[in-house]
């Protein structure tokens, strides 16, 4: 991030604009929303600028800016559309200690003006570091549509009530109070019955929240999905946002953790990799302690919590207490990997059964019904199978599996850095070692990538565009 977004207090501060043409009008329109004292220097001012001057909303000087004009200014804009004049103006501003911007000139500007969605006092500033103005405009348009125009009014009503809300203890009760006002009761009251009704809602809510209530913690076991934040369920998103404490594994995706509130406590309980490893009993104890302290605990688990996620063990630990819990399912790695392959996990006439198995269990390499898996057409998603691949190949070949059975490893399924290694049973360990897979990977036994995608992987080209080409651009 080259530009750090901040909101600057311009009450009573001077803002200077050099240039009085159309470019100036655009910036003035934004600056006039503030309480700054604005001075414009420029010859030939356009009609709008003259009008604002007549209305005394700005001070207009019908001449180029001079040394000394920018004294005590907070900001100075060069808006002449003339590089030399802008450079001269900016030099004057900098000597006077103002921060400076030349309109549409990122390199020579000390700050940039974001796209703004104005629901004062709620203000959204959108910046793309100059990289994608079209994107900023699109985001602005989306937000303009999404944020009701009454939002500002609601926030102002809320703002005036803030001192009263301090009667509530900090933290959970206060958060719940505001959240109920802004998201449940306030908008409806304001829309139906106006400002006074919204005000009454605040008073009623305050009385309700002041009534003593037993804070009771609870636990949500939430499936994070395979890593792509778009593959989170809406429910998982909401629950994450409401959590006081998020207990997650080492591999939790940073984009997903971002969805937690800023005040939420994030606790990593990694069980692999470097550093101290958490024992299951300690994780159980942590979940219980946080919930008993009255917190809403999210226990975030990759994929689906019920697939190789020790969900049962953590639920059993909670059963010994009276802490309520729920499970929010997620997309498991096998589903994500199948999607990446463009392959179906089941197919009429090939497999009416899908196995979800692990390469490892508590006692080492895991044993399975190999004879059944070795049958033609069998499909299995093998989790935690990388290090067991030699063992798995041996067992399957010994039980009569076809050495040519396709096996496809999908590493980091659904993520931008996913890798697909397509091979066959006979070559499995060598192919995996050759590819040097590091990340979490699932072995899709009995599945090959969809033909177009497979070619793409071998050619090391983008499978998406290749799939398009293969289908003659008709996908
Ligand atoms: N509950 C998880 C599985 C946890 S066990 C789920 O439902 O997906 C951990 C194993 O899951 C990893 O060793 C790997 O085999 C698999 N896995 C998890 N995320 C993955 C991903 N993004 N891509 C491929 N495999 C993944």
Largest sheet: 5 strands, parallel
* CATH level-two architecture of the largest domain: 2-Layer Sandwich
CATH superfamily of the largest domain: Tetrapyrrole methylase, C-terminal domain
Radius of gyration: 30 Å
Total domain count: 4
Please name the CATH topology of the largest domain: Methyltransferase, Cobalt-precorrin-4 Transmethylase, Domain 2
| Strand order in space, largest sheet | 3-2-1-4-5
The coarse silhouette is extended
The set of bound ligands, ions and cofactors reads:
S-adenosyl-L-homocysteine
Give the strand content.
15-25%
Indicate the mean pLDDT. Answer: 89
Q: Using DSSP, what is the number of strands?
A: 19
Give the termini distance in whole angstroms: 37 Å
Task: Kindly report the oligomeric state of this protein.
Answer: single chain
Low-confidence stretches: 459-475
Q: Give the count of helical stretches.
A: 16
Q: Structural class from helices and strands?
A: alpha/beta
CATH class of the largest domain: Alpha Beta
Account of the 3D structure:
It is a single chain. The protein is α/β, with parallel strands linked by helices. The chain has four domains: 14-113, NAD(P)-binding Rossmann-like Domain (Rossmann fold, 3-Layer(aba) Sandwich); 151-210, no CATH class; 218-331, 3-Layer(aba) Sandwich (Cobalt-precorrin-4 Transmethylase, domain 1); 334-456, Methyltransferase, Cobalt-precorrin-4 Transmethylase, Domain 2 (2-Layer Sandwich). The chain has helices at 22-31, 47-54, 83-95, 133-146, 151-165, 172-210, 234-242, 254-257, 280-292, 311-319, 333-341, 370-373, 389-398, 428-435, 451-459, 463-470, and strands at 14-18, 37-41, 59-61, 73-78, 99-102, 115-119, 122-126, 218-223, 245-248, 265-268, 296-301, 325-328, 354-358, 360-361, 364-365, 379-383, 406-411, 419-424, 441-445. It has a five-stranded parallel β-sheet, sandwiched between helices. α5 packs across α6 and α15 packs across α16 (463-470). It is extended and about 95 Å long. The two termini are 37 Å apart. Mean pLDDT is 89; it is low at 459-475. Bound molecules: S-adenosyl-L-homocysteine (SAH). S-adenosyl-L-homocysteine (SAH) binds at residues 226-227, 301-304, 307-309, 332-333, 337, 383-384, 410, 412-415, 440-442.
């Amino acid at each position: 991030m080259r530009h750090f977004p901040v909101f600057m207090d311009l009450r009573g501060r001077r803002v200077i604009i050099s240039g009085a043409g159309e470019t100036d009008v655009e910036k003035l329109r934004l600056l006039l929303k503030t309480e700054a004292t604005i001075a414009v220097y420029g010859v030939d001012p356009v009609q709008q600028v003259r009008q604002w001057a007549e209305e005394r909303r700005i001070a207009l000087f019908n001449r180029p800016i001079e040394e000394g004009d920018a004294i005590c200014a907070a900001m100075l804009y060069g808006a002449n559309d003339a590089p030399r004049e802008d450079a001269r103006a900016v030099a004057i501003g900098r000597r006077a200690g103002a921060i400076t911007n030349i309109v549409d000139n990122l390199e020579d500007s000390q700050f940039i003006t974001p796209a703004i969605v104005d629901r004062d006092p709620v203000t959204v500033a959108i910046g793309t570091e100059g990289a994608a103005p079209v994107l900023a405009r699109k985001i602005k348009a989306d937000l303009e549509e999404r944020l009701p125009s009454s939002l500002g009014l609601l926030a102002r009503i809320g703002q005036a009530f803030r001192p009263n809300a301090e009667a509530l203890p900090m933290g959970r009760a206060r958060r719940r109070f505001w959240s109920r006002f802004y998201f449940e009761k306030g908008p409806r009251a304001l829309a139906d019955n106006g400002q006074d009704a919204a005000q009454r809602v605040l008073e009623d809510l305050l009385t309700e929240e002041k009534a003593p209530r037993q804070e009771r913690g609870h636990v949500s076991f939430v499936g994070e999905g395979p890593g792509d934040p778009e593959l989170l369920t809406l429910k998982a998103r909401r629950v994450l946002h409401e959590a006081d404490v998020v207990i997650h594994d080492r591999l939790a995706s940073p984009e997903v953790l971002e969805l937690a509130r800023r005040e939420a406590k994030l606790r990593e309980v990694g069980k692999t990799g470097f550093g101290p490893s958490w024992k299951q009993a300690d994780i159980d104890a942590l979940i219980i302690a946080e919930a008993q302290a009255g917190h809403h605990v999210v226990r975030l688990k990759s994929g689906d919590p019920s697939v190789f996620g020790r969900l049962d063990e953590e639920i059993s630990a909670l059963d010994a207490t009276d802490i309520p819990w729920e499970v929010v399912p997620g997309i498991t790695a096998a589903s994500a990997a199948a999607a990446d392959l463009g392959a179906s996990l089941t197919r009429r006439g090939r497999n009416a059964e899908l196995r979800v198995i692990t390469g490892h269990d508590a006692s080492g390499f895991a044993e399975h019904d190999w004879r059944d898996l070795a049958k033609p057409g069998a499909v299995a998603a093998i989790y935690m199978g990388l290090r067991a691949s030699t063992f798995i190949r041996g067992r399957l070949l010994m039980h009569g599996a076809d050495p040519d059975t396709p096996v496809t490893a999908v590493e980091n399924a659904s993520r931008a850095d996913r890798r697909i290694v397509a091979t066959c049973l006979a070559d499995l360990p060598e192919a995996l070692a050759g590819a040097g897979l590091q990340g979490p990977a699932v072995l899709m036994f009995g599945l090959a990538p969809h033909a177009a995608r497979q070619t793409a992987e071998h050619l090391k080209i983008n499978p998406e565009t290749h799939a398009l080409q293969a289908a003659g651009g008709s996908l």
